[in-house]
Amino acid sequence: MLQIDAFLSFTIAMSLLLGGKVITMNAPLLRRYSIPEPVVGGVLCAATVGLIYAISGVKVSFTLGARDFLLLVFFASIGLGSDLRTLLRGGKPVVILTALAATFMLMQNGLGVVLAEAFGFNPLAGLMVGSISLTGGVGTTLAWSPVFVQQHGVSNALELGIAANTVGLIAACVIGGPMATWLIRRHGLHGPAAGQLDIGSRTRGPTPPLDYFSVVWALLVINMTIMLGMGLHALIAETGVTLPAFVGCLLAGIIVRNATPLTMKRSLARMWPGVRQGMALVSDIALGVFLTMALMGLQLWELSGALVFIFTVLALQILLTVAWTMFVVFRAMGSDYEAAVVCAGFGGITLGSTATAVANITAVAQQHGAAHRAFIIVPLVAGFFIDLVNAAVISGFIAVIG
Q1: Would you call 150 helix, strand, or coil by DSSP?
Q2: Do 108 and 130 form a contact (C-beta atoms < 8 A)?
Q3: pLDDT digits (tens), the chain, 402 positions
Q4: Distance (Å, whole) CA 338 – CA 390
């Protein structure tokens, strides 16, 4: 095995992100369907590493310790940009999207169980290619696979889960932008004529004003928010509830954003009007490098076992996701521009990860216009409510099948 150290891995990730952005800027097809730039570089790297293994048998592994911290930076920034009034207005859509995702998880697991039986596998193996790996992601896969191996006799549970998560993650990155783009054009939808983006900057138009103090202030506030977020995460863990660390940082950002006195916020805005743009820039870079690292770290040779079963299930899961998103989620979320942006993230919720979902809606917003409610609704559902609902759904299926 060839192990790449942390510094070189991070440098490669930044190079891949830049390469992906350059390729996307010069590829009208990628821009047309809002394919996130990190996906281009990350997938090319994963494919290259897989090819090296296929030819020489050498496994290339990257040290990706910085990846998790970048996710904290990103969600702290999202929280810091979240106005409580907007959050409260998003209450009903959050409930609706959570219900839609929960219903979809039932279908996702049902499809997995039926196909597992059809291929002669333990029916419970279908859950490993259902909401455990697809909606839950790598963390949920690693948490549940020992239970399936030790208590339910699914010996290849981890391999099935990792393979499904790998395919689902790539698919989620690819389908989100095109779905939203088609809905926007099909229904003649338009983003706001003006408005600051939640993350990054538009692919076209004037560059927002930035200066040294704006960026340094942004970094300081984000770091302090992460410190508070990790404290909240520890408090939540004491209650026995297991949630990703980024949820604490998201909540901390919301608290800091809305608990800071209005006079202080106005004074800061007058002294350094680019602070908000600074936070948007930092979060954009953090998300881009994170997703690039997540994709470049995929080990495609894990797909070598049970290939026919895995690809059959995943092909149907992807088709099910597209159909449910286009014909149910879009209408239930209001059939407007914000709903189309949410649809871009729904594939990430149900096939990839929270970061994938937000990367998809970021790409669409940068192309078509700001969607502030979507940037609150999608992370809250994907990073908070879904984990709780998924645990209940998985336990229910095990109780019925096992």
Answers
A1: helix
A2: yes
A3: 889 999 999 999 999 999 988 998 888 877 766 677 887 888 889 889 989 988 998 999 899 888 888 888 987 887 887 666 655 665 788 889 999 999 999 999 999 999 999 988 889 889 999 998 898 876 677 667 778 888 888 877 877 887 787 788 788 888 888 999 999 999 988 877 545 555 554 444 454 567 788 888 889 999 999 999 999 989 988 887 656 677 788 789 888 888 876 656 666 556 556 777 788 888 888 888 987 887 787 776 766 666 788 889 999 999 999 999 999 999 999 999 999 999 999 988 888 777 788 888 888 888 888 887 888 888 778 766 777 788 788 888 988 886
A4: 25
279 close to 78: Cβ distance less than 8 angstroms: no
Question: Which residue has 């259902």 as its token pair?
Answer: 130
Gap between the Cα atoms of 80 and 258, Å rounded: 8
How many other CB atoms are found less than 10 A from the CB of residue 259?
8
AA letter at 342: V
Tell which residue, 378, 384, 354, has the closest CA to residue 365.
378
d(CA 35, CA 42): 12
**Residue type for position 394:** I
What's the Cα-to-Cα distance from 69 to each of 4, 75, 231, 356, rounded to whole Å? Answer: 19, 10, 15, 16
Domains identified in the chain and CATH numbers: 2-401 (1.20.1530)
Task: Tell whether pTM > 0.85.
Answer: no
Residue type, 259: A
Tokens 């559902």, residue? 381
Burial, 311: exposed, middle or buried (Cβ in 10 Å; 0-12, 13-18, 19+)? Answer: middle
